[in-house]
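Q: What structure does this chain adopt?
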Amino acid sequence: MAETNVSEDETTMEQHETVDEVLARHRQEIKQLQNKETELKKAAAKGSKAEQKAKKKQVEEDISKLSTKLKEKQLKELASQGFSSTSSSSGNISKDETNEKKGDIDTLVRAIAGVSVTAQPEHSKPSKSVKRREKRAKEEADREQRIKEEQSNVTSDRMVENQKLEKKLKPLGLTVSEIKPDGHCLYRAVESQLANLSGCASPYTYQKLREMAAAYMRDHKTDFIPFFLSETESESESAEERFEKYCREVESTAAWGGQLELGALTHCLRKHIMVFSGSFPDVEMGKEYKSGNGSSLMLSYHRHAFGLGEHYNSVVLVKNMTG
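A:
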């Protein structure tokens, strides 16, 4: 009975409230419900996991009932003031009041749609994780843009280089066979050439060719170490130490290979190697192994390949490419 009297008193009071007072009270009621939810959840976070789970479920049910009851009550009160969930304006309400009512109605509509009354405001600051993701996305977009720009800058150089190379190879009945640009291109190109000569698989894999080149360089250190005497990477390392470090990279990493390694492979394999280029004069290595039986290894050197810089491909007869 007492509860009924209080309700009647509240109704009488609400009938004399201004629009601003109704809105202010609604915000206070929502805040009180939020505080109550927080308190109940804190109280539920005690006991065993099973007890906490049961308490949490009960809190959610209780808050849901209170929230539904509060929304129904507030919507009814707002309707009596001229508001509706589909219209945010009334002919006798000022622009400021309309905006404020619309914000409050929107909040209630979102709540009716299932959004918790403790949901974060729409304009809350993004979390640190969101900022990190946005930063990474921007960096990736910038990187891709730089790559595109670099590619466009080297396109003309690559085209000119390829055209010059084609003019050299075409009269000889030769063409380029693409090799994967993964740091092993020199060794893969040699492997491809050995396979062409044997008519089946190469006797050596690209990894084995790496190891063979490194072993030959170690065994003939005096022929190769002069190339390291002018190195100044580290004053604490001698030329021999830098040379050994270089040999380890040759045999165990994807370090790019060049003329030093080609020279070593020439002697390891006892093969004449011809390197064609569209940017530089052609290079012959291992002339002492040259014979007239077509056993030479033929490679192409590309200065502007793929925008990645230097690259080696295999060179084959056109008829081998066309089948």
